[in-house]
Amino acid sequence: MSVLTAAPAQTVCAPLPVLGGDVTVPLVTGGEVAYAALDYAASAPALQRVWDDVAAYAPYYGSVHRGAGYLSQLSTDLFENARKAVAAFLGCRDGDQVVFTRSTTDSLNLLARALPADCQVFVFETEHHASLLPWQDGKVTYLDAPRSPRQAVETLERALADRDPHGPALVCVTGASNVTGELWPVRELAAAAHTHGARIVLDAAQLAPHHPVDVRDLDVDWVAFSGHKLYAPFGCGVLAGRADWLREAGPYLLGGGASRRVTRRADGGVDVEWHESAARHEAGSPNVIGAYAIASACKALTEAGWDDLVARERHLVRTVREGLAGVPEVRILSLFGDDAPRVGVISFVVEGWNSSHFAAALSAEYGIGVRDGLFCAHPLVRTLLGGDPQTQGECGAPEAAAGEKSLNAIRVSFGAGTPDEHVRRFVDAVRELVRDGAKWRYRTEGGRCVPAV
Ligand SMILES: Cc1ncc(COP(=O)(O)O)c(C=O)c1O
Predict the structure, then answer these.
(1) What's the CATH architecture for 49-302?
(2) The whole model's pTM is what?
(3) pLDDT tens digits for 372-419?
(4) What distance in Å separates the CA atoms of residue 56 and residue 375, rounded to the nearest whole number?
(5) Which among 94, 376, 407, 419 has the fewest CB atoms less than 10 Å away?
(6) Which residues of 273-286 are buried (b: 16+ CB within 10 A; e: fewer)?
(7) Would strands 139-143 and 120-124 be described as parallel, antiparallel, or unpaired?
(8) Any idea which architecture 24-46+305-451 has in CATH?
(9) Structural domain spans, the chain
(10) Mutation choice for ligand 1 from 129, 376, 381, CB with most ligand atoms inside 8 A
(11) Measured in angstroms, how far is the CA atom of residue 218 from the centroid of ligand 1?
């Protein structure tokens, strides 16, 4: 079920408890206000349940796969059970592997290192840099930005039809855009990939926190996501899916944990027998707290119920979109159009405003945390803005001075922990800022707009 196409909810459930709900921040104009965290797409706050689970485990913390003591064995069990919980959350197939990584970026780089020789990779230019860049050492084809889900499938089919049908191929696609929040036609893209003998990896960094992801149902070969976007900010990520390419590839990192047996050769060198399980790509001491936190988040989201979570987020998306639609100076960025199903990620520009200036004012004068910039998806944001690639600053560091015309965008994003009041406050703040202008003066420092205090 998609966020905007879901049937109307009878009741909208309460937000899930997250940390930081009672944090107040100072305003440049004086006083303090409750912080509205509306940058979930970058990093979401920790679920209270995740925090409680981690706190309950912390006294029992011990080494994983390398200790005879009780706490080491308990920690090893916890780590391996976290793997099973993630596999269940993703609907993995028998024989699939769940590898714990540091993040989505790490997961996709791991897969890039595990590609068979001469593997062709197909990726849309609209991807986040984590999906766009890891394939550069191989044969990669960048596909033009499609303007509808249907065009995405047709573009991919055309590209795959032209490829050498005998060699291995991989398609990498996002589930939900980190810029527009729009859902991509993953099931259809997977079908197209498989029809042409290619495999597909799903970048679910922005999909998994908002929507159920089922590997079997979507028929994707791998899925990657990050704990810190899934309410579990303890430095862990996931790559889950087919075992064969991972097993046949050399280990991602060389070291203890990945190796089963190491022996000295007569010629002075060493021979190594590497694990064939997920441990092959998990060298070093595993991040048991990170893995446990992800498993806890998976359970919390499943227990809360996806139908309710999706319906609630749909209601928040509608509140923001309808609110912004009432401000003629605001233009929401979209690839697939107004009716496209989307998650709680919305980027926009405000006529006559530098986006960094606008975001700084939202923070300094209203206590609302959003993001501005190109969101590590430079080609997509430039396409949507119609900007000149030569004039843009680096990711997250726009170079235009306060008050100049926008060359970057503003992104508001929210999820399961967001109270209605935060999105209403955001819409009111946008209206007021556009109507009355900023109350404070700002200056550019290190490429960012900051209050001139
Ligand atoms: C769609 C998408 N893919 C990948 C990533 C990279 O995630 P991480 O920074 O956790 O590696 C992000 C991060 O914003 C993202 O939005």
Answers:
(1) 3-Layer(aba) Sandwich (3.40)
(2) 0.93
(3) 999 999 999 999 998 643 343 332 334 445 445 457 899 999 999 999
(4) 35
(5) 94
(6) ebbebbbbbbbeeb
(7) parallel
(8) Alpha-Beta Complex (3.90)
(9) 24-46+305-451, 49-302
(10) 376
(11) 20
